């Protein structure tokens, strides 16, 4: 039977992709610097092997035949559709380009880890130029084969069906609404009392692990480590989270850990029966980001959660229970502080979309060729000035070098962050309406996790992000829930209504 052949073939591909993810995790977390070149070659070889297996003509023949097999159930048919999509995309890109892209992005990322801390943009121009040229070639190849604009074809990898025509109206609404909300929040918020450090890495790691376990992370199938840039990777049965520590500002790591835990619990909740099959993998990255942002922003920055978490924070960090700086209310003020800042991953949820829109607009110019790599710092500075009234000239470390994404070839990914924030707000509103979030203040997280498992996690890739969202919430993706949420949290209801 053709479907059986497809299933076995992609089981083997899934095993190789698991190995790729573990090698990538090790590279970011544990590999000595001298291992970089060899690791880049190994990852490139694996990428080539996986690409060859996915693009094999037999996959096309098997999927054609399997689609005619009447005995397939709904999930098997969805698996055939996902396989067919992967096959078409793989057939569009030559193997040599896949291998070269993997090797150059690994080397560029390794250089970024060193050069960012040195604020050395000039040293990154040539490596990034090579990556961008490969991205352009990849976008053109995909666009030609799929009948899409090259940038849309790149975005489609991260969120199937996503295009500029669907994103632009959403982002324009945010660009119109957010400046007034930011101004109101800045004008009305109270400063938090300082919580002076230093906080050791060990203290912060213990706090992170404690909170992770309480909200539902399974340490029998995962772990927490450190890296240059927080991320979640690995496999549903071996889910790896990383963070970085600031010894003077523990909230940065705490919320980074909670964010990545949202990603990880999604991975751990994927259907066991469909391991190593495309239909059993997580949905688009907008849906994935919704799970991290729902946990970090909607749940864990709420006053209810912080009332529950405050004693845990104090105990983990050795703080005085009677010090008002360590009260839940003060933690909440610190956790919801709005500030026009340079760093995206540290941004509050009101200014965060402007960081994403900036990157979305710039990377389109990179892909089209209307902007050169050498132009990035000036273009970045201009948009930061326009959107957040901040200058980054001469400070590339906190400007165009702050994110790893472009240096590792992830162009087309950034829009999913803000689409994920909108999705998170809409999903959480539905979960609250169902009573699934009522016990958060008492540390009762299981009802929410059960709701997410049923409505999101166990759906995997059997349906599209938009189908999953509409079935869970009763409405297509909108900005309403997100804007209402930030208006309530930051005292800007009048501005939203205006």
How would you characterize this protein structure?
The protein has helices spanning 2-29, 36-55, 57-66, 74-92, 95-115, 122-146, 150-158, 164-188, 201-215, 250-268, 285-300, 303-317, 328-335, 352-368, 376-388, 415-433, 446-455, 465-473, 480-489, 493-497; strands at residues 222-226, 231-235, 238-243. 45% of the residues are buried. It has a 3-stranded mixed sheet, with helices on both faces. Helix content is 63%, strand content 3%. It has 498 residues and is mainly alpha-helical.
Task: Briefly characterize the structure.
The chain has 20 helices and three strands. By secondary structure, the protein is mainly alpha-helical.
Number of strands: 3
What characteristic shape results from the CA principal axes? globular
What is the residue-averaged pLDDT? 95
Low-confidence stretches: 493-498
| Portion in beta strands | under 5%
Oligomer: single chain
Order of helices and strands: HHHHHHHHHEEEHHHHHHHHHHH
Biggest β-sheet description: 3 strands, mixed
Structural class computed from helices and strand pairing:
mainly alpha
Count of alpha and pi helical runs: 20
The largest beta-sheet arranges its strands as 1-3-2
